[in-house]
């Protein structure tokens, strides 16, 4: 496809639209895509004069929304949505593949649907992100069998000189791996972030040298709680909670409340979260378990991040990582380069101001100013330019 496309606007002009992927990417929609807009279904035409233009069914030509300057405005303010010709989600045991940019590398990840085999998908995503296994860039779907084959091939590479382990892996591949397609039941120990009962299905993480971690850890500052249940695992604790008085006959009511609070903490504590953060190396990938769900996790810039692999975010090119801010669920969506949408907008503003001819120190001042702006529906270039002019700076 050429980078320009001549098309009639609604007022009758012939306009040369920029239809390149680079120009359309900031809007999250690309030329030729079918979308639902506030005025009904339409087609994305391209970019002209800083706006993404659409041809709405029934109109005489293309038009745009002047308050739809970026992806957030189009999606969250105007509710523009992609119209899919094919359903998003697994088809005949196939799973969607998404191409992302991760640490300046283009890689594929597997997307998770509501009932998909998240242990295998999270493992596969660790291996894909670390480039231990690969999928061709043009692959849009992958079967769970293909994933299993790639995972076991990598395990066998690690033990190519150990025939005893290779024999075990061969048996695991035939008799155990298929069960992971339906999920994986684990038993957590409350004294270690890697405290899991070593069942045969769980051994896949050891075979692949992938850390499986959780954050359901007793805080040592709660000494009485740690003394009573810190050494237990989930299967030990569950029946004791039901028969608390018989299991802990000398426990005071306030201690019972603390133990109940721990048992009902959604399988994550602040102390457990801090332990994961301390023990993971920078940009180390692992699998994080919580509430019967397995997710791909990494630490970057000192923060913990969960890979956003839900199939509902397939079209969200700027939502790749979910930075964990607290155990209560506070988080921030980030791009593959771990930048927020505002971070990316600020980079665009800085580059634009430099193109305008402002000096580096002036650009730095403007950058500091726009970082204080919380609203996402304003033109940050315009705001930065006005600020610099108010300071007496001219081009």
UniProtKB/TrEMBL annotation:
Residues that span the membrane, as ranges: none
Superkingdom assignment: Eukaryota
Any one of the GO CC terms: cytosol
Signal peptide span: none
Domain named MINDY deubiquitinase: residues: 94-338
Biological process per Gene Ontology, one example term: protein K48-linked deubiquitination
An annotated Gene Ontology molecular function: cysteine-type carboxypeptidase activity
Pfam family, one: MINDY_DUB
Name of this protein: MINDY deubiquitinase domain-containing protein
């Amino acid at each position: 496809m050429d980078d320009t496309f001549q098309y009639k606007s609604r007022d009758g002009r012939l306009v040369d639209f920029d239809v390149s992927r680079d120009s359309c990417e900031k809007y999250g929609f690309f030329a030729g895509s079918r979308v639902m807009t506030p005025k009904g279904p339409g087609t994305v035409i391209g970019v002209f004069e800083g706006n993404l233009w659409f041809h709405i069914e029934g109109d005489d030509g293309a038009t745009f929304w002047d308050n739809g300057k970026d992806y957030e405005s189009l999606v969250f303010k105007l509710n523009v949505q992609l119209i899919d010709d094919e359903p998003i989600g697994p088809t005949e045991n196939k799973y969607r593949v998404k191409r992302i940019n991760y640490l300046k590398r283009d890689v594929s990840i597997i997307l998770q649907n509501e009932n998909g085999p998240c242990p295998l998908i999270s493992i596969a995503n660790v291996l894909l992100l670390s480039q231990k296994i690969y999928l061709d860039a043009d692959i849009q779907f992958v079967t769970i069998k293909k994933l299993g084959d790639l995972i076991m091939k990598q395990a066998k590479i690690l033990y190519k000189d150990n025939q005893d382990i290779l024999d075990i892996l061969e048996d695991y591949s035939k008799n155990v791996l298929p069960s992971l397609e339906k999920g994986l039941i684990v038993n957590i120990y409350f004294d270690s972030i890697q405290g899991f009962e070593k069942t045969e299905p769980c051994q896949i993480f050891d075979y692949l040298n992938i850390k499986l971690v959780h954050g359901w850890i007793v805080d040592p500052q709660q000494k009485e709680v740690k003394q009573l249940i810190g050494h237990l695992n989930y299967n030990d604790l569950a029946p004791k909670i039901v028969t608390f008085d018989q299991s802990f006959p000398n426990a005071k009511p306030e201690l019972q409340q603390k133990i109940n609070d721990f048992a009902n903490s959604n399988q994550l504590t602040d102390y457990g979260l801090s332990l994961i953060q301390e023990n993971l190396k920078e940009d180390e990938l692992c699998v994080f378990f919580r509430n019967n769900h397995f997710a791909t996790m990494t630490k970057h810039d000192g923060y913990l991040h969960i890979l956003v692999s839900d199939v509902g975010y397939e079209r969200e090119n700027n939502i790749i990582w979910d930075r964990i801010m607290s155990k209560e669920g506070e988080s921030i969506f980030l791009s593959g380069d771990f930048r927020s949408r505002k971070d990316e907008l600020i980079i665009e503003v800085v580059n634009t101001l430099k193109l305008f001819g402002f000096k580096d120190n002036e650009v730095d001042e403007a950058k500091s100013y726009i970082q204080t702006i919380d609203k996402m529906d304003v033109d940050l270039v315009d705001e930065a330019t006005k600020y610099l002019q108010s300071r007496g700076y001219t081009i």
